[in-house]
Write a structure and sequence with these properties.
With 359 residues, the protein is of the alpha+beta class. Strands 1, 11, 12, 13, 14, 15, 16 and 17 form an eight-stranded antiparallel β-sheet that branches. Strands 2-10-9 form a three-stranded antiparallel β-sheet, with no helix packed on it. The protein has a three-stranded antiparallel β-sheet with strand order 3-4-5, with no helix packed on it. Strand 14 and strand 15 form a beta hairpin. Helix 3 crosses helix 7. The two termini are 24 Å apart.
Length: 359
């Protein structure tokens, strides 16, 4: 296989496809997308420690007047900030008579049950016990030891990111009828990109897969360290990456070519690092959080995808200033991709659950 390196950066962040190929004439990837390679990458991801941490939402979703509510593996969870700004998390069921705390207001950092006024300030009280919580600046995590069943970690395994002060961030949340492993398996199949998402990706080539060369993928330049990562585990995840050359379609023949590396630092997370080309050091993190069963008994999983975009171009400072306008556009683009990718994950779960999955 001949790796296609991203073109040298020009004055503008766009390139022109010189010899575009129609969708139906592009090179088939089904022979390269070997089910065993995807399955083994998934198995290795599932073997990595999570410390029982689960992503529950975006940092920006923590409001001053109401808690952020999520059901994780059937457990109701509420998250808010106390009077000092400290992140607080705990059960979403009032210990008095079971009121849904998701519907209760926060007043001066105190969550006040709207049934009988039981006031929760973040400390153990009246049978309510807080849960470990963590804010990494983009996402909010909660540790559920009885759900994860692993040895707990003090902090979650947060992927390496560019400095947030110099980045544009956006978070998309979607829900599908599948399990977290189906979401992770989707992201560990980079070969489907140009076929399944031709509106976003073209000229895709997987130039390295886990176990083919034994080389560690290049670490994204400018990436911050991760407080929650154990050194050995981080290195193992970096060595177990899919290296992809791909062009993001902008309009017509205008594209942005990059090299990206997909890694799975923990069982419910897959990260795409841009290592060459425009936006080098940018990341897209896909986190899968189990929610519980729906009314038909099917598992439901939340996809929480964080985009942390960075660039050393002068004009990017203007983009950062326009973050409030850019975030809805980024979320819309992610939503279009996940409309398809959740169909992939849901189909995978449906086949697995009926013993028909060929992989």
């Amino acid at each position: 296989m001949n790796p296609r390196r991203p073109a040298r950066r020009g004055r503008l962040p766009l390139s022109l496809r010189r010899s575009p190929v129609a969708w139906e004439r592009q090179r088939p990837t089904w022979r390269e997308a070997r089910p065993a390679v995807i399955a083994q990458a998934l198995k290795r991801a599932q073997a990595r420690p999570s410390g029982n941490w689960f992503v529950v939402g975006a940092t920006r979703d923590i409001r001053a007047d109401r808690p952020l509510a999520r059901t994780v593996a059937g457990q109701e969870i509420v998250v808010w900030r106390d009077a000092t700004g400290r992140l607080v998390a705990g059960p979403g069921v009032c210990p008095h008579l079971g009121a849904p705390l998701r519907d209760s207001p926060v007043r001066c950092g105190t969550l006040v049950c709207h049934w009988h006024g039981l006031a929760l300030r973040g400390a153990p009280f009246a049978g309510w016990e807080p849960l470990p919580a963590y804010d990494d600046g983009v996402l909010v995590w909660v540790r559920l030891d009885d759900v994860g069943g692993e040895p707990p970690l003090e902090a979650p395994v947060v992927p390496a990111r560019p400095a947030l002060a110099r980045a544009v961030t956006a978070v998309y949340v979607g829900v599908g009828a599948c399990e977290p492993e189906d979401v992770v398996a989707n992201r560990l199949d980079p070969w489907h990109g140009a076929w399944f998402h031709p509106y976003s990706f073209v000229d895709l080539t997987v130039v390295d897969t886990p176990g083919t060369t034994g080389k560690a993928p290049a670490r994204a330049e400018g990436a911050e360290g991760s407080e929650g990562e154990e050194g050995g585990e981080a290195a193992t995840a970096q060595e177990d990456g899919f290296v992809v050359d791909v062009s993001f379609r902008v309009a017509g023949r205008l594209v942005v070519p990059v090299r990206a590396v997909f890694t799975a630092p923990e069982p419910r997370t897959v990260v795409m690092h841009i290592t060459e080309g425009e936006g080098r050091s940018s990341v897209v993190e896909t986190h899968a959080t189990p929610l519980g069963a729906d009314d038909r008994g099917r598992p439901r999983t939340a996809v929480v995808e964080a985009v942390v975009a960075a660039s050393d171009r002068r004009g990017f400072a203007v983009a950062r200033g326009m973050s409030p306008l850019l975030r809805p556009l980024v979320r819309a683009a992610a939503g279009r991709l996940w409309r398809d990718d959740l169909a992939y994950a849901e189909r995978r779960w449906q086949l697995r659950s009926t013993g028909r999955f060929p992989g």
